[in-house]
Amino acid sequence: MASSHDASQTSTADQATDGEILSAVLAGDADQYAVIVRRYRRALQNLAFSYLGDAQMAEDAVQEAFLNSFRWLHTYDSRYSFRTWLWRILLNVCHRLREKAKRQPVTTTTLTAGAAPSSPVLLESEVPCEALSRLIHSERRESVLKLLDRLSPIQAEAIRLRFFGEMKFQEIADAQGIGLPAAKARVRNGLLQLAKLIQNTCQELAEEIA
């Protein structure tokens, strides 16, 4: 059983900033990186799942991203956001796994709500369509993920970073190498386009049933 002293140390570490934790890791206290893993695992899992559509692949991608970030930590430039740097590593892993999956024989699988990581944080005020909000939070979330692939790659990435990766607009701008207004525009325009796709899909389903 962990002592109260150990619990106090864990609590203190959890309250430390990313910069303080990373400095400790680079100084030789590698165990401190576990705090980074606890802090960002959920958001990274949601982001990876939004790209890969498979819970196990998403978990593997997150594990690889954490391992790579730990291995390459000495290359991180502390003048910039660590979150953006870490998220970019994960995106590179996800892109590679998606390309690898495209080259492999396709197998049919059924996505269920239980297979996905926990629901992403969604800011209602930024969603132009109430139906879209419900879909992202519901068991039909996988339908939204499929529709994301019909957007332009940069719009889809911006939406994934914002609503699944829980990134701030400035972090999205940094990750995509654009200005803050452009990042906001990409998210909003992507959401509007996604809402249209959802509306069209629902109309097509209604016509099939009729």
TrEMBL record:
A Pfam family cross-referenced in the UniProt record is Sigma70_r4_2
> Its Gene Ontology biological processes?
DNA-templated transcription initiation
| A GO MF label | sigma factor activity
What residue stretches are annotated with the RNA polymerase sigma factor 70 region 4 type domain? Answer: 142-194
- Start and end residues of each RNA polymerase sigma-70 region domain: 36-103
Transcription in keyword set: yes
Q: Which domain of life is it from?
A: Bacteria
Q: What are the record keywords, sorted?
A: Sigma factor, Transcription, Transcription regulation
Indicate the family of this protein. Answer: Belongs to the sigma-70 factor family. ECF subfamily.
What protein am I looking at?
Answer: RNA polymerase subunit sigma-24
This protein's species is: Blastopirellula marina
